[in-house]
Design brief:
Elements (H helix, E strand, L loop, with lengths): L3 H11 L30 E6 L2 E3 L5 E3 L2 E6 L3 E8 L5 E5 L5 E7 L3 E8 L2 E5 L4 E6 L3 E8 L6 E6 L5 E3 L2 E3 L3 E11 L3 E2 L4 E9 L3 E4 L4 E6 L3 E2 L2 E4 L2 E7 L2 E2 L5 E4 L2 E6 L3 E8 L4 E19 L2 E11 L2 E4 L22 E7 L2 E3 L2 E3 L2 E10 L8 E5 L1 E9 L5 E7 L6 E3 L2 E5 L2
Parallel strand pairs: 6-10, 11-14, 12-15, 13-15, 14-16, 15-17, 16-18, 17-19, 18-21, 19-22, 20-23, 21-24, 22-25, 23-26, 24-26, 25-27, 26-27, 27-28, 27-29, 28-30, 28-31, 29-32, 30-33, 31-33, 32-34, 33-35, 34-38
Antiparallel strand pairs: 1-4, 2-3, 5-8, 6-7, 7-12, 8-11, 9-10, 35-36, 37-38
Length: 415
């Protein structure tokens, strides 16, 4: 056995000693947290902020905000209904609304479904049910349809769905989507007989030439455009709230019924002959421009303000809305009848021939800005001057001497 006392004495004599291991301390210089941002955002990423705080050895604190990427993965799937596909396709939206798509007759429809996590399950009745987080139908496209085909898009319980886009590659009989809001474009590759929507906003409905179409919406059209190469038999809507890009373009329109207000839109008619049979606006008609190369039969509105109804007229000089000479008309077109129940203000009605103009309460004082009617012949102009309260009743106007001003309201006959 080693004597511990002798061992200690030997280490003292040789100068060899041992020390217990201890921590080594390194002095650090002050450091600052740095951050970096993405030169180009990555699709489907969500950036969240985090702000850590650090304290250096000199007891100085510093904070820096970092952007932390969280990748969001979305699913997309295409499902076919109709010929070669499912009997029906249904999708449950985030609010619980179930949208069902069916094709009646020849052809098929491809439904593009989008969501965070999508699941599919074929039900006993043959319907392919799509569920998932934030599931939506981002588009529907039909193929191989005929004029006898019906595309049905329905919901249950009176709920309303939204679809971003719809297209066809051939003729189709009816697009029946009475509980669907169209939030994008509807582009038809062939003739369409009927389009029934709950509403439409911010897109363009495009129909090629070769047929005639009826269009109906259950709610006000908002910032919408309709471009039809086919005759429009009828448009029935509760209202139109447009912007500078809103218009209806067609060779001709049979009946255009607006149960409420009609504002900020252009109607452009391109065919010869009778181009507009009836335009009925129950509410206010404002900032509406109607141009045509043919005849207009009947226009009625609750009131008119800042409108232009001008047909068969060539280009005028800048700042002019009323012609000076008959040669400025490009065709002998006529407007048969205009009837206003309420007020008529700052509006122009111009054609080579005008029929009966019943203009209601005419705001004759317009701050020095003239407005009114212009033609080579006018059957009658009647209304009430809102300034004097007197009746205006003019009949069989055919000569320049029949022209008359009521302050800023002008009735102008061309030589």
């Amino acid at each position: 056995m080693v004597d511990s006392a002798n061992l200690w004495w030997r280490r003292r004599l040789t100068g060899v000693t041992r020390r217990a291991a201890g921590p080594v301390i390194e002095r650090l210089e002050a450091r600052q947290l740095l951050s970096a941002t993405l030169a180009q955002p990555i699709p489907n990423q969500v950036l969240q902020q985090d702000t850590p705080t650090a304290i250096d050895l000199s007891k100085n604190s510093t904070a820096q905000t970092f952007l932390v990427d969280q990748v969001v993965t979305r699913d997309e799937t295409n499902v076919v209904v109709g010929s070669g596909g499912h009997k029906a396709v249904a999708l449950q939206q985030a609010d619980g609304t179930v949208v069902t798509v069916k094709v009646g007759g020849k052809g098929a429809a491809t439904i593009v479904a989008d969501g965070d996590v999508l699941n599919q399950a074929v039900q006993k009745n043959g319907t392919d049910l799509i569920t998932g987080t934030n599931a939506v139908i981002s588009g529907i496209s039909t193929t191989g349809t005929t004029s006898g085909t019906t595309l049905n898009i329905t919901t249950a319980g009176g709920k309303v769905a939204s679809i971003a886009g719809l297209s066809t590659d051939a003729a189709i009989g009816t697009i029946n989507a009475r509980t669907v809001n169209l939030t994008g474009n509807l582009t038809a590759g062939g003739r369409v007989k009927n389009i029934n929507l709950h509403g439409a906003s911010g897109g363009t409905i495009t129909i090629p030439p070769g047929g005639s179409v009826n269009l109906k919406s259950s709610t006000v059209l908002i910032n919408e455009a309709i471009s039809s190469g086919s005759r429009i038999n009828s448009i029935a809507i509760p209202g139109w709230a447009g912007n500078t890009n809103s218009f209806v373009s067609a060779p001709s329109i049979g009946t255009f019924n607006v149960k409420g207000d009609f504002s900020a839109a252009s109607i452009i008619l391109t065919a010869a002959g009778l181009e507009l049979k009836n335009l009925n606006v129950s509410g206010a008609m404002s900032n509406v421009d109607i141009s045509a190369s043919g005849n207009l039969s009947n226009i009625a509105a609750g009131s008119m303000a800042d409108d232009k109804i001008i047909i068969g007229l060539g280009a005028l000089h800048t700042g002019k809305d009323l012609p000076n000479f008959p040669t400025e008309f490009t065709a002998k077109d006529f407007i048969n009848k205009v009837r206003v129940k309420g007020t008529f203000s700052n509006t122009f009605i111009v054609a080579e021939s005008l029929g009966n103009l019943t203009l209601g309460k005419i705001t004759t004082s317009n701050g020095g800005t003239t407005f009114g009617v212009g033609s080579s012949s006018i059957k009658s102009v009647t209304g009430t001057d809102t300034i004097t309260g007197k009746k205006i009743a003019l009949h069989r106007l055919t000569a320049t001497t029949d022209s008359i001003n009521f302050e800023d309201f002008i009735v102008k006959l061309l030589p």
